[in-house]
Amino acid sequence: MPDNHTEDGLPDILLDILRCPADKAKLEYHEEDDTLVCTECGTAYPVEGNIPVMLNPKHGNEEE
Ligand SMILES: [Zn+2]
């Protein structure tokens, strides 16, 4: 039996490294909607296939 309870979602090490680009605060993984949410400003970053997409915060509907 694998002694590893982080098989779902993002590994803790990743959460440790990742910071909100805006304020360098820590991020929190929200499993229910697959987003990383900044503990400081509350910006949610989508996670696609276990890869956090830090360039497209779900702030609004901006598209360039
Ligand atoms: Zn932030």
Short structural summary:
InterPro entries: Trm112-like. This protein has one helix spanning 12-17; strands at residues 27-30, 35-38, 44-48, 51-52.
What would your notes on this structure say?
InterPro entries: Trm112-like (IPR005651). This is Trm112 family protein. This protein has a domain of 35 residues. 9% of the residues lie in helices and 23% in strands. It contains 1 helix and 4 strands; from the N terminus they run αββββ. The protein has a 4-stranded antiparallel sheet, with no helix packed on it. A hairpin with a 4-residue loop joins β1 and β2. It is globular and about 25 Å long. Zinc ion (ZN) binds next to loops.
Helix and strand arrangement:
Layout: H1 12-17, E1 27-30, E2 35-38, E3 44-48, E4 51-52
Antiparallel strand pairs: 1-2, 2-3, 3-4
Bound molecules: zinc ion (ZN).
The site of zinc ion has 8 residues, from loops.
Pfam families: Trm112p (PF03966)
Protein name: Trm112 family protein
InterPro entries: Trm112-like (IPR005651)
